[in-house]
Design a protein that fits this description.
The complex is a heterotrimer of chains A (about 550), B (about 650) and C (about 270).
Chain A lengths: L21 H8 L2 H4 L12 H8 E6 L4 E3 L7 E7 L2 E4 L19 H10 L17 E2 L9 E2 L4 H7 L2 E4 L4 E2 L1 H6 L7 E3 L3 E7 H10 L1 H22 L8 H10 L1 E5 L4 H10 L10 E3 L7 E16 L2 E8 L4 E2 L1 H10 L8 E14 H7 L19 H12 L8 E5 L8 H8 L8 E7 L2 E5 L18 E3 L6 E3 L9 H5 L6 E4 L18 E4 L12 H5 L5 E4 L3 H7 L2
Antiparallel strand pairs in A: 1-10, 2-9, 3-8, 3-10, 4-7, 4-9, 5-6, 11-16, 12-16, 13-14, 13-15, 13-16, 17-19, 17-24, 18-19, 20-21, 22-23
Helix pairs in contact in A: 3-7, 7-8, 8-9
Chain B lengths: L20 E2 L1 H4 L28 E2 L1 H25 L42 H6 L7 H5 L3 E2 L23 H4 L15 H7 L7 H4 L19 H9 L2 H6 L2 H7 L7 H4 L14 H4 L1 H9 L3 E5 L10 H8 L3 H9 L18 H7 L6 H17 L5 H9 L1 H7 L5 H12 L15 E5 L2 E5 L6 H16 L3 H15 L14 E4 L2 E4 L22 H12 L26 H10 L18 H5 L11 H4 L7 E2 L1 H5 L16
Helix pairs in contact in B: 16-22, 17-20, 18-19, 21-22
Chain C lengths: L3 H27 L4 H24 L8 H23 L7 H33 L9 H23 L3 H15 L4 H5 L4 H14 L4 H59 L1
Helix pairs in contact in C: 1-2, 1-3, 2-3, 2-9, 3-4, 4-9, 5-6, 5-9, 8-9
The chains are: A alpha+beta (about 550), B mainly alpha (about 650), C mainly alpha (about 270).
């Protein structure tokens, strides 16, 4: 198991919880969860105590407080220190608890009624809907408000739940694998949890055998088999072979979770490009296994001139190294990799060892696996758009707003159309980064890796069950700005909401205007898809999926 | 490229192009406020501590405002113009969609109701005005204020044709639409438009038009029996004829031979018809002398059974006769011979009718005739009409015996009463008129179109129709036959003037006349507008080919009018004469060959001369104006046209 | 992007509609019916349909077809209206005063439409060529910020080099340039007069500047070049927005007068 650290723990310069005292850390060392940890196995530069001190915090939950929500993205795991928690089994749970928005598609007349109901006053809200969730202020200043379950006994009666007792670990798969939380967990009694941020989690897994085994086993049991089964390369395999595959596969993570923050810095300091990215595999080396991308993005590049030239980027479900492995197996000599693979931000990779492929997979492959795009028939300028979209991380977008500036007459019909379907308020800015005659406007791209969703305290920002677009529930948004700050593309904006008479709605406690995070919702409630696309009279505007498999078709 | 940081979520709010206002400071190229104008149009910068500006309306808002202004302006203009009395400002009349043609131009002008000459004003109220948009305007009735036709105006072709399909109701504006410019042709009708209704559809005259009817256009017997074939073929140019007459006669005859058709036909005034120039020019030269010879015997002395009067009576009435004077001188007694009538004739056909007895009914007419003579001789001035009044009416009698000198009658009667033949004291009257001659009272025609003869011919015709009883009818028939027979004196008129029948009564065509119905009311032809015919006619003159001929190869009029030497032209008249009652004017043989379509298509054909329907056919029948239109300058609007001038 | 096939289809459809109307008008006039009534009502329907494009823009919340398709219909319909108008009137210019007003409006509307079509086809590319991308409403702010930036630069130059040659030049000429968008009419026709003027200002003052000042001048000119791009955007985007300021009110006028025309015809003639 290889974990590539980007650097020594500079992150400890800003600890997860600066107020965590040494006494509390030593108290933690004596909890049952960490008694068995062999501290000698940790390197000197990252001692176990250091991890606890800097990468964890102790969080208190009231009875009823929701700890994690199904569908949320999070980058921390929890260990129960005190009290008991309940996890909803199956996809059950009280309605409205998750803070999600139920998308009711409007009918034609309802849609038309917006013509009259839309206000010329900006950001008017019907505030009666606010406060339907049970919100509780966080205990510490750093805590955001929490949603809580009001009538615990009734909820326990009504829904099937499982209990989580002291010492239980949860949330680690979502944190490490960058996948949505799979269950909703709330505190049954008042409880104390240790929250470990992803960096600390990774170190723990790296240096603590038991911890790793615990996580890996759970991962293998829950997700890996399904994931491998869904990989086209392995669909034809027998169950027992697949079992072998599951047990032999290694999983690795590369890059930074918070790439969306770091990449801007890198770009602005001129350190963009593959040579500044975390390498996963390098051109000229020999492959020891097939790399399957499970989450995140990776760049495939080759040396070109004085730099590297991107030939492709890989997203979830795609693999790297198959051709070199196949050639090695065929020729019984070691064939070096023809390209490098680097992490674009955060990448979760599965490594399937070569021998098992040679035994079970290659004999069934008919013909040599194809290479990535051949450079012979592509000029640098052909690929410049690809380089640009990778550099700008637009590859994350599944519904990026792409405007052809050679056709766009700047009439703003798209903006007005957007406003007409959103109560008179636009939800994007018709401006953005340009390349050649293309512009990616500041409209939500409904990212494959929705970093905006990390840390939403109420679950207001979420991925829609239907359609998969990222939407914000205005009723449960508390305007904390976490999402807007997270979005690397500046596509979420906070607005001051107003009542129907045009006056700002103020928070009764702070007397500050109540803010709400807003962004493009792809006209989720409106019939007929995004109004902006329909409204463009010159066909200049389109919503584009930058995912590797679709880019070829949709991109220019 | 603008610094992307300007668009970060912290520094840039959504751009709101649907805002109604834009920053006033910005539009003056100052530094715009950060927050921009408020939604209510006030300056949002005031809250930032800046001196407030006056936000401007956004472009779209401006656009909406301009649209509203334009809407209001036009609506106001329309209302103002519609409110003005029509035509009060002619140049600004918003309603006139274009100049009118011809005399319709008079409808446009300063007179306040000019438009209402054709258009109903619908002026009573606003709502009524508006609702009349859904009611049809009856423009046709307005047209008919002035225009009239021979036939119903609202039916196709004024309903003179028998339509095989239900003929649609027609409106004038279907074809005649105005306001298309003063020089617009508002009567144009295309061939396609004709064939919409007409079942016999064809592309063009030369390709589908049906063949003309047989004998076209010589369907109806002409009123004057002028036999072109015999005149031209025999009398004018036949060697046989010319050699049969004496030299002196020939020298008189030759100058009378017409040079060409137009010697007798009125070519300078020709249009549809080229009428004959008349008797004086066309016939007189040869036929005038023949007329004087055709005497009419009106009365004759029939055989009488007894002496009409005693001598003394005669002497008293008529003066002594030569015999009587001689006897007195010789003092011989006049020998009373056995009476023997000097006349052995029967009663003349006219006399027979007038006296009311058959010609041979001597037993009955004897006494009557003698009384007639007696009354003449005993009367101081006897008008023969007095005697005939009873039978033929006073007026008629006067006409029939017009110009008859009573003295002549008396002398004649005296002679006849004396049972002697009357001897003219002088020669026959050379200029015509009444005269007695032996046992007859005769009338000698004075000239062509002699009124007395004409009266007698008409009398004989009428007498037959008016006769009562078989005997009288028979006598009238005999009289009529006698008078109309070309063999007898006045019958010579009928050698040229044809007889026709109207309501079972015969009539004589005294004048040249051609009825319209001959070729149809919708056809038209203009001889004068056929320059080719004209040219060829002139050429014929110039080359002296022989101006007219029965040979059909000759150009000129004969291009179309070719003679039919075979036809029994006169025979068709004679036959009908024998059978007056059944005389059908259409069953006759023209001495011209019928004109065929090919005659026309030799010129009127595709890529040659025009051949559209309207060239030869006209839609309306006798389009004309109402009399009041023609008599005086009409005042608009016409009275009683349903329009009441308002305000 | 609407495919060429669909574009072709729409134009062919327009042609077919015109063909049908032409045939129908001919048939009506041959049948002694009123062809003007048929073509007139069709004309109104077409004009209303064209005007609906504006309504459609206001109804963008409804899935009533892509605006691009509508624009295609609008364009083809506009040409069709012109043709049907000629069919209706029978010539290019009518005789009546009111009808001439109608003709004036229809021609003006069509011509502004053609103008709009042409500029919308040509201006975007020129905008892209400026290398500047700016939202029209933000141009005033952008100009103002640029002005501040330039003035700071000039001040700094004056302070640092203790020479007011550049400052003088700025006050004399360039201040005028940075005051607001300039060379409007030149930009409308795609002329590069603005850049030439800048080069001239550059060359005029450069010979009097020290090397230090020249550095500032270079920066100044760079900002001025950017301003030139802004000017281009201001003009082109303004024209692309502004032409509707004429086209739309004309359409309103045309529709009102057309309805009145139809009303008059039905009241007085039909």
């Amino acid at each position: 198991m290889v974990v590539a650290l980007e650097s020594a723990p500079q992150r400890w310069d800003s600890p997860f919880d600066p107020d965590l005292t040494d006494e509390e850390v030593s108290g933690l060392l004596n909890t049952s969860a960490f008694l068995t940890v062999d501290r000698d196995l940790f390197p000197a530069h990252t001692p176990f105590e250091g991890i606890l001190k800097n990468d964890t915090r102790i969080v208190n939950f009231h009875a009823g407080d929701i700890v994690v929500r199904e569908g949320d993205y999070g980058n921390s795991a929890f260990i129960v220190l005190e009290g008991s928690l309940r996890v909803f089994v199956g996809n059950e749970g009280p309605e409205g608890l998750l803070g999600r928005q139920s998308i009711n598609k409007r009918g034609v007349f309802s849609a038309l009624s917006q013509l009259f109901s839309n206000s010329h006053i900006p950001e008017v809200r019907d505030t009666r809907n606010y406060g339907t969730q049970n919100l509780r202020e966080g205990r510490q200043d750093s805590d955001a408000a929490r949603v809580f379950v009001q009538d615990i006994p009734a909820v326990l009666d009504e829904f099937r739940t499982a209990i989580l007792e002291e010492g239980a670990v949860f949330g680690e798969l979502a944190a490490l694998g960058r996948i949505p939380r799979t269950a909703t967990i709330f505190s049954e009694t008042d409880s104390v949890l240790l929250e470990i941020r992803w960096q600390g989690l990774r170190e723990l897994r790296k240096y603590n055998e038991e911890f790793r085994r615990q996580i890996d086993t759970r991962y293998r049991e829950n997700a890996l088999k399904v994931h491998l089964r869904e990989t086209p390369l392995f669909t034809g395999l027998e169950d027992d072979v697949l079992e072998q595959l599951v047990s032999a596969t290694l999983f690795e993570t590369y890059g930074a979770f918070d790439w969306h923050i770091s990449y801007q810095k890198m770009r602005s300091s001129g350190r963009s490009g593959p040579e500044h990215e975390v390498p996963i595999a390098s051109e000229g080396e020999y492959a020891d296994g097939l790399l399957l991308i499970r989450a995140g993005f990776a760049r495939v590049s080759v040396n070109y001139g004085k730099s590297n030239r991107t030939v492709a980027y890989l997203g979830a479900g795609q693999h790297y190294g198959l051709r070199a492995l196949y050639d090695s197996w065929k020729s019984s000599t070691d064939v070096a990799l023809g390209s490098s693979l680097t992490a674009l931000g955060y990448v979760d990779v599965l490594r399937v060892p070569a021998p098992i492929l040679e035994e079970h997979v290659f004999p069934n492959i008919s013909g040599r696996p194809p290479t990535f795009v051949s450079l012979d028939d592509r000029s640098v300028s052909d690929d410049s758009l690809l380089e640009w979209s990778v550099d700008e991380r637009f590859i994350n977008g599944t519904q990026a707003m792409l405007i052809d500036l050679n056709r766009c007459v700047r009439c703003d019909d798209c903006v007005r159309a957007c406003a007409s379907t959103h109560g008179g308020n636009p939800r994007f800015v018709r401006h953005g980064k340009t390349f050649d005659h293309w512009m990616v406007a500041n409209a939500c791209m409904h990212c494959a890796d929705p970093v905006c969703m990390i840390g939403c305290p109420t679950g207001a920002i979420h991925r829609s069950q239907v359609g998969g677009m990222v939407i914000i529930n205005d009723d449960t948004c508390i305007g904390c700005g976490t999402c807007a700050n997270s979005c690397p593309y500046n596509n979420i904006r906070l607005v001051d909401v107003r009542s129907r008479d045009g006056s700002l709605v103020l928070n009764p406690n702070t007397q500050l205007p109540i803010q709400k995070a807003t962004k493009c919702d792809l006209c989720a409630t409106n019939p007929g898809g995004p109004a902006c696309v329909r409204a463009c009279p010159h066909g200049a505007l389109s919503r584009v999926d930058f995912q590797p498999e679709t880019l070829a078709e949709d991109s220019p | 490229m603008i610094d992307p940081k300007k668009f970060s979520h912290q520094t840039s709010a959504y751009e709101r192009p649907n805002n109604k206002y834009i920053c006033g400071r910005g539009s003056n190229w100052g530094t715009p406020c950060l927050s921009g104008p408020n939604f209510d149009g006030t300056c949002g910068g005031a809250e930032e501590g800046q001196s407030p500006c006056t936000p401007r309306r956004s472009l779209r808002r401006l656009r909406g405002r301009y649209s509203a202004i334009i809407f209001g302006l036009i609506a106001a203009l329309l209302i103002v113009f519609n409110g003005l009395p029509n035509g009060s400002v002619p140049a600004l009349s918003a309603l006139n969609p274009g100049p009118l043609t011809g005399d319709h131009l008079n409808f446009v002008g300063p007179s306040s109701k000019s438009c209402s000459a054709c258009h109903a004003p619908h002026e009573s109220s606003g709502w009524y005005w508006l609702s009349s948009a859904f009611v049809d305007n009856d423009m046709t009735s307005k047209c008919l204020d002035c225009h009239i036709f021979e036939g119903p105006a609202r039916l196709a072709h004024n309903q003179t044709i028998s339509a095989t399909q239900s003929v649609m109701r027609t409106d004038c504006v279907m074809c005649h639409t105005e306001h298309k410019g003063s020089d617009a042709d508002i009567s144009a009708l295309s061939d396609e438009q004709c064939s919409i209704c007409h079942e016999n559809k064809f592309d063009a005259f030369d390709s589908g038009h049906p063949q003309f009817r047989e004998r076209f256009p010589y369907f109806i017997r002409p009123s004057i029996k002028f036999d072109h074939v015999s005149h031209i073929g025999k009398h004018f140019f036949s060697d046989k004829y010319l050699s049969s007459i004496s030299d002196s006669k020939l020298s008189k005859h030759s100058p009378l031979i017409p040079e060409s058709c137009i010697t007798c036909h009125d070519e300078p005034n020709a249009d549809r018809r080229v009428t004959p120039l008349g008797y004086d020019i066309g016939c007189k030269g040869c036929h005038d002398q023949q007329i004087a010879a055709r005497e009419l015997v009106v009365l004759n002395l029939p055989e009488l059974l007894e002496r009409t009067a005693e001598d003394d009576e005669l002497i008293e009435a008529c003066g002594p006769t030569i015999e009587y004077i001689e006897a007195v001188i010789s003092e011989e007694n006049l020998v009373e011979d056995e009476y023997e009538s000097i006349s052995g004739d029967e009663l003349d056909v006219i006399s027979s009718f007038i006296f009311g007895y058959n010609s041979d009914d001597i037993d009955n007419y004897d006494q009557l005739f003698r009384d007639f003579l007696s009354s003449i001789i005993t009367s101081r001035s006897f008008q023969i009409s007095e005697f005939t009044n009873e039978r033929i009416g006073n007026q008629q009698s006067k006409k029939l015996f017009s110009g008859l000198n009573p003295e002549v009658v008396k002398r004649l009667a005296c002679a006849w009463a004396s049972n002697i033949e009357y001897e003219l004291p002088f020669d026959e009257p050379s200029y015509g008129g009444w005269y007695g001659d032996f046992t007859e009272l005769k009338y000698k025609p004075t000239r062509h179109a002699d009124p007395v003869l004409r009266n007698w011919i008409e009398f004989s015709i009428n007498a037959y129709s008016n006769a009562v009883g078989d005997e009288e009818k028979e006598r009238a028939r005999i009289m009529r036959e006698s008078l109309l027979s070309p063999k007898n004196g006045p019958g010579a008129c009928l050698k040229c003037h044809s007889v026709y029948q109207v309501d079972e009564v015969l009539a004589v065509n005294w004048n040249y006349e051609q009825t319209r119905e001959e070729v149809g009311p919708h056809q038209r032809y203009s001889h004068s507008s056929h320059p080719l015919v004209e040219a060829r006619r002139k050429q014929a003159h110039d080359e002296e080919i022989g101006p007219i001929s029965v040979e059909n190869s000759k150009p000129g009029c004969a291009t179309c009018h070719q003679m039919n030497t075979e036809s029994d032209f006169r025979g068709s008249f004679d036959r009908s004469l024998r059978e007056y009652e059944a005389s059908d004017p259409s069953s006759y043989a023209s001495n011209f060959l019928g004109i065929t379509k090919e005659t026309c298509t030799s010129c009127h054909a595709r890529s040659r001369v025009a051949q559209n329907c309207q060239l030869c056919h006209q839609y309306h029948i006798e389009p004309n104006y109402k009399i009041e239109m023609v008599l005086e300058k009409p005042k608009w609007p016409l009275e009683n046209n349903g329009m009441s001038p308002s305000n | 992007m609407v495919s060429r096939l669909r574009t072709g289809f729409v134009w062919v459809t327009a042609l077919i509609i015109f063909g049908f109307l032409f045939y129908e008008a001919r048939r009506a006039s041959v049948s002694l019916e009123s062809a003007e009534v048929i073509t007139g009502w069709c004309l109104l329907c077409l004009m209303v349909f064209l005007a609906l494009f504006n309504i459609r823009k206001k109804l963008s919340m409804l899935p009533i077809g892509k605006a691009e398709t509508w624009l295609l219909f609008h364009t083809a319909g506009g040409v069709l209206v012109t043709a049907v108008y000629w069919l209706h009137v029978g010539n290019l210019w009518p005789l009546g005063l009111y009808e001439q007003l109608l003709a004036l409006l229809i021609y003006a509307t069509v011509l502004t439409g053609v103008f709009g079509y042409v500029i919308q086809r040509t201006y975007p590319k020129r905008l892209t060529q400026t290398g500047v991308e700016v939202i029209y409403e933000r141009i005033p702010r952008e100009v103002s910020e640029l002005r501040d930036q330039v003035e700071d630069l000039v001040l700094e130059c004056t302070e640092k080099t203790e020479s007011e040659t550049l400052g003088r030049h700025y006050v004399d000429t360039l201040a005028w340039y940075f005051r607001r968008p300039r060379f409007f009419s030149h930009h409308v026709f795609g002329s590069q007069h603005g850049r030439q003027w800048l080069r001239q200002q550059d060359a005029a003052v450069r010979r009097y500047l020290s090397d230090d000042e020249k550095v500032y001048l270079d920066q100044l000119i760079e900002l001025a070049e950017y301003k030139n791009g802004l000017d281009t955007h201001y003009v082109y985007q303004g024209v692309m927005k502004g032409w509707l300021l004429i086209h739309v009110p004309l359409t309103v006028a045309l529709l009102v007068t057309s309805v009145w025309h139809i009303l008059l015809v039905h009241i007085y003639a039909l």
